[in-house]
Amino acid sequence: MQHEKILTLALLIIAGFGCNSKKTESTGDQNQQFDQYKNAFVEHMWEIYPGWASSQGYHKFDSVMFVPNAEYDTKQLAFANANLDSLKAFDLKKLSDNNKTDFYMIENQLKSIVWSINEMKSGEWNPASYNVSGEVAEMINNNYDSLDVRLHNLGIKMKNIPAYYEAATKNLKNPTVEHTELAIEQNMGGVSVFENDLVNALKESKLSDAEKSEISNQAKLAVGAIKSYVDFLKTMKNDSPRSFRLGEELYKKKFEFDIQSGYTADEVLAKAISHKKELHQKMAEISAKLWPKYFAGQEMPKDSMLLIRQMIDKLSLIHVHPDSFQIAIDKQIPVLVDFIKEKNLIYIDPSKPLVVRKEPDYMAGVAGASISAPGPYDKTGNTYYNVGSLSGWDKDRAESYLREYNQYILQILNIHEAIPGHYTQLVYANQSPSLIKSLLGSSSMVEGWAVYTERMMLEEGYGNNEPEMWLMYYKWNLRSTCNFILDNSVHTKNMSKEDALNLLTNEAFQQKTEAENKWRRVSLTSVQLCCYFTGYTEIYDLREEMKKKQGDKFKLKDWHEKFLSYGSAPVKYIRELMLEEKK
Ligand code: ZN
Ligand code: ZN
Prior knowledge:
binds zinc ion; single chain
């Protein structure tokens, strides 16, 4: 599960935007006033980021598209600065825990907007930050309103597409080669949204013929604009393209804004490197112990990394049949719930059972498992555990997939995605509903919790302490550990592709394809891959700290429930509040 805030959906407003920061009196109920302020803040934010609003299920500004020019930057900065000013009117000490964390999260978001525009400037070097087809496809295919209403709004919105791409060509200075290639690929890929999806939708709609022909005219202009943009990217003179590596300075700040950790990136890096070493040691010990059981009579490799790899390859052969992939997951959920009850690890609300379903068609292709939760504006929606089907896969592909998600890893995946990982966290987060936390929630807290529960479950005896289970868990944990090392080293320490692939295949025991895909991901994104290990480390450290402080009084169940009661806030703020309470 990835949680990425997309703020690059730059589009022009015609109506003026007025953000009046009302001064709040320090007398009266600060919490009540802060609640009012938050509502106004979100509404303003949607005015400025209409594409993001639609993606969250808020459709009031569906017909608006901003042109990404200097005027739009000014508008965003005015919004951010006015709200930073408004925040000053509140006395943090008088706010409830929930409002305190919301306050910090809003402040972080606003500062991040200012920094993105003034320092990060990805609009100058990332041509892939310009793409309209995703938003357009969403309006055509998502049934949140009648087709005619959606198409009508889309018709108005599309009028700005030519200006949008023209502004994009003016903004670009020395784009990276990698993001230029991505932009060409993704923008060309998006043309079919206008040429197929939209054409078909217009056939079905009952709009007047005049409006239909107006919309298809806009669509043709949009396609023309996209193709010109792609031509521009293919032929633009770019003698000294920027490196895709973010560099130390920008990375440090981005890490601060996106991860909001109590540690610096360098501190977490040091932890990741020593954690990797520790994992290798443990894995070598287990592998040596298991060797006679699986390789009786064969000589054990002297090289410990080779030994670990052979053990992992052997254990990966133990997996379910392709036809029973979904059934296996289905059967696992009650087993996890029973274990948690038996060991008294956390309360699981029986009135909110998790619905396991076959992955819907529109998600097909991305096999595996994921949680779909309803957005913050759709309170009645179900939460599903989507499980991919392997039907139609050729034998080799299915086999390699099933070896990856073998009997052991599949269980760890269920812990991570479902219970007590993402799904359980979500149920708790919904109990103290905060629109701010659903919109600006900390990916590091959310992913960190899921990664933390994997280890916690095994520590509590899940899998009967079998060495096989632990070995495969360590391999899985190496993935998030190396994700951090990779991201940080590539973007701030000039790590070469060769060294990166070496890290992933030889030290994290990944397949070549997986490693190549990861290299692509790290050259197109930054900091994102850090959230898993950082959150996990912070949560684990906090737990151990409180265990020490409370001694005999420490109860794991209470600690878990208390920790989750703060919602998807950054761990460093939860830590502050939990430690404060204990005083
Ligand atoms: Zn996850
Ligand atoms: Zn097999």
